[in-house]
Design brief:
By secondary structure, the chain is an alpha+beta fold. 27% of the residues lie in helices and 17% in strands. The chain is built from three helices and four strands. The radius of gyration is 16 Å and the shape is globular.
């Protein structure tokens, strides 16, 4: 028997952007986009490799969340690599996502 007052919450949802529209919010390197894991992600998301863009990724993420059975989700950020002085190491950061705090 289910309790209608209980909420379904997924606290571990990964999101990503390639950085073509919102480069300050996320990035996936060309190397990363050639990896099997990314190609499998595209397959499950129903996105053709030649159509990948920040707009498409955003729309697919939002549609997937809205059509899920979840009442709430927590989208996870992933920091880029930084050196000891706090400078971003561009070459070592193949994938990162910044959370929008506004």
């Amino acid at each position: 028997m289910s309790n209608p007052e209980l909420k379904l919450i997924d606290i571990h949802v990964h999101v990503g952007l390639i950085g073509n529209k919102w480069p300050d919010m996320g990035y996936m390197s060309a190397w990363y986009r050639q990896q099997l894991t990314f190609k499998i992600f595209l397959l499950f998301a129903g996105i053709k490799a030649e159509n990948v863009s920040d707009t498409i990724l955003h729309d697919v993420i939002v549609r997937t969340i809205e059509t899920s059975m979840m009442d709430k989700v927590v989208c996870l950020a992933m920091d880029p690599v930084y050196d000891n002085n706090g400078n971003k190491c561009e070459g070592a950061s193949h994938f990162w996502v910044k959370m929008n705090t506004s």
